[in-house]
Amino acid sequence: MIALIGLAGMLDVLRQADARVAAVAWRLQTANLSLCADPAALAGFSVETLDQYAVAERAEAGAQFGLRDRPQISAVAPGSAAEKAGLRAGDEIVAVDDVPVPPGQGGKPSYARTAAVEAALAAALAKPPVKLTLAARTVYLTGDRGCPSAVQLVPGGRFDASADGHYVQISGPMYEFAVGDDELAFLIGHELAHNLVPEAKRAASGKAQRAAELAADRSAIRMMAGAGYDVSVVVPFLDRLRGKAPLSWLDGTHPSWSTRVAAAAAAVASVRAGMP
């Protein structure tokens, strides 16, 4: 990809992909409050810092996005309270509730500074409104009620998607495999379910984990319907995924493909019939 479109084009593609993942995740999280026991106020925007970029990419990221020492808003979810408050991509964050954001560290690529800003936002949103001091103005933000989980696109890596109880990560190859936002919503919804829905939480034993995978599929389909995505893509998507999935998915932690596809088809039919 770098050879074909150059570094500037690659960074732009990655930023657009990050924005797409964030928008789909926000829509799923805010439209399905009934599925999470402990909703929270979500910021509705994504943050990035120069620290995230490889040293060789930082000059280009600065030139292309105006990214400097301060954390910057990289994407704002359409329809969010953040968008309504006037936040936009490119806004530089100076302080959260009058506490200055941490300075850049330089050196090797690290997500730690971005994570620190996200944690400060999450803590402040527990008692809204948040005073968000930007380089050019001050904005007061209430956030949007939603199911808490940080959803990230991880460029490169193997064909995979994962959840650890707090984060959801979609690999670059998995992101590229999803055709359209409806399929992406199923991918993200499945991993969100592992974090949020009791019966879908990851388990230690093979039998319990196989049941959790089926529950995550069912919950993802419900989330899709609740957020207005097209659930008819799920079964064809799983059929395509069957030929692409790594062998590690057949180690006993996942149900057989025939079982999974049949269960997903039944869940789609239930949703279309208006059944819970």
Unreliable stretches covering 5 or more consecutive residues: 1-5
Query: H/E order of the elements?
Result: HEEHEHEEHEEEEEEHHHHH
Task: Tell me the total number of β-strands.
Answer: 11
CA-CA gap between termini: 44 Å
Number of domains: 2
Structural class: alpha+beta
The residue-averaged pLDDT reads 91
Main sheet attributes: strand count, strand direction, barrel closure: 4 strands, antiparallel
Q: Strand portion, in percent?
A: 15-25%
Trace the largest sheet across and list its strands. Answer: 5-4-6-7
Given the structure, what is the number of helices? 9
Please estimate the helix content. 40-55%
Q: Choose one word for the global shape.
A: globular
- Radius of gyration (CA) equals 19 Å
Features:
Pdz3 Domain; 11 strands; disordered N terminus; four-stranded antiparallel beta sheet; 9 helices; 45% helix; alpha+beta
What does this structure look like?
This protein is α+β, with helices and mostly antiparallel strands and 276 residues long. The longest helix is centred in the N-terminal third of the chain and has 30 residues.
